[in-house]
Design a protein that fits this description.
This protein is of the alpha/beta class. The protein has a single domain (24-338), classed as Inosine-uridine Nucleoside N-ribohydrolase, Chain A, CATH 3.90.245.10. It is built from 13 helices and 14 strands. The N and C termini lie far apart (53 Å). The relative contact order is 0.14. A nine-stranded mixed sheet has the order 6-5-4-7-8-11-14-12-13, sandwiched between helices. Residues 1-7 and 345-351 have low confidence and may be disordered.
Length: 351
């Protein structure tokens, strides 16, 4: 048989001729399923030659777990991806009850948008069980985990079956804040839900700290990185132009992508931030990001402290080189998934 290396299989073919088969990267998506999830899922699904989504798992966060689970199925349905199995997950942190949120994405977690419900029910297995199960069944270090909500599912899985979680290729996380940022409601901020705490880590700080200090390979996209790409008025116009022939769909996409507009403007004086999608964009365009390797601790309120260390397990991103390029990737991906072109007919008969 062939040899698996960097997800490429080399097979002998007719004597000395070698053929190369590039394997798709397996992805698990673990999030609280708001408008950000629509963006990152579109990017992955628009590149089926690159990615195979093994599972979608849910966690409390922007909304309750019940809403998140419904949103997960509905967003997959909206993206014509009913084939992806989705799983329930944690409805609160592993060590305490759910804390207060900030309502940035509305009660239902998707800015009050009403989506068509999926006909596909969720799987019965829990996220903390299916994630390590997939990692055990797959070749070691071939599955990437995108974790862009509270880290409770992954924390529980790591504490229960650490050897399975150590098989992960990498965990791409949106969370925390590693540098102070200019604000309008106070001079500087190092967080959004609190002055020095980002929402995802604030909602389950103990679980975030466990994962970030697990020794697992982590690529982190903190707020000070993700704030470099926003839905500016010009970009909103581009979205509207792309979906101008489907006005109902256009309004849904715009509302999903601009749900946190009021809070982002009140606190930072900027357009709605595109947070979670950077995890997917990095897999396509790693050259567009600049970061530092180090170690991170998460305080009791979710405060993130970064210490540079060339041997650290966390690669924390600081800079997005070309946000316009990355936004174009998101926009093209949304168009490809939400308005799929019909398959060309092999021939036509004229009468």
């Amino acid at each position: 048989m062939g040899r698996l290396k960097n997800q490429t299989i080399y097979l002998p073919f007719f004597g000395n001729l070698i053929i190369m088969i590039t394997m798709k990267e397996q992805i698990i998506i673990d999030t609280d399923w708001g408008g950000d999830a629509l963006q990152l899922m579109s990017v992955l699904l628009a590149h089926p030659e690159r990615f195979d989504i093994a599972a979608a798992t849910t966690v409390f966060g922007n909304t309750s777990h019940d809403y998140a689970l419904q949103n997960c199925g509905d967003i997959l349905h909206m993206l014509h991806a009913d084939h992806i199995p989705y799983y329930p997950g944690a409805d609160k942190p592993s060590d305490r009850d759910v804390g207060p949120g900030d309502g940035a994405h509305g009660q239902n977690g998707i800015g009050g948008v009403l989506l068509d419900h999926t006909p596909i029910p969720p799987q019965s297995e829990r996220a903390c069980d299916i994630i390590p199960e997939i990692l055990i069944q797959a070749p070691e270090r071939t599955v990437s985990l995108i974790a862009v909500g509270p880290q409770t599912n992954n924390s529980i899985a790591f504490q229960q079956i650490p050897d399975a979680m150590k098989r992960v290729k990498q965990i791409l996380i949106m969370g925390g804040c590693t540098a102070e940022m200019n604000a309008v409601d106070m001079p500087l901020r190092k967080g959004n839900i609190e002055a020095n705490a980002e929402f995802n880590f604030n909602q389950a700080p103990h679980d975030a700290d466990i994962i970030l200090n697990s020794g697992l390979p982590i690529i982190l996209f903190p707020m000070n990185c993700t704030h470099q790409m926003t839905v500016t008025p010009e970009r909103e116009d581009m979205i509207r132009q792309s979906f101008s022939h489907t006005p109902d769909l256009m309004e849904k996409v715009v509302r999903l992508m601009t749900a946190p507009a009021e809070i982002d403007m009140q606190k930072f004086g900027i357009s709605p931030v595109m947070h979670d999608v950077h995890t997917a964009l990095y897999l396509l365009h790693p050259d567009q990001y600049v970061g530092r390797r180090g170690c991170i601790t998460v305080g009791s309120n979710g405060r993130t402290d970064f210490k540079a260390d060339p041997n650290g397990n966390v690669l924390s991103m600081d800079t997005v080189k070309n946000p316009d390029l990355l936004f174009q990737t998101v926009l093209h991906s949304l168009s490809a998934r939400l308005m799929p072109q019909p398959e060309p007919h092999p021939f036509s008969l004229e009468t």
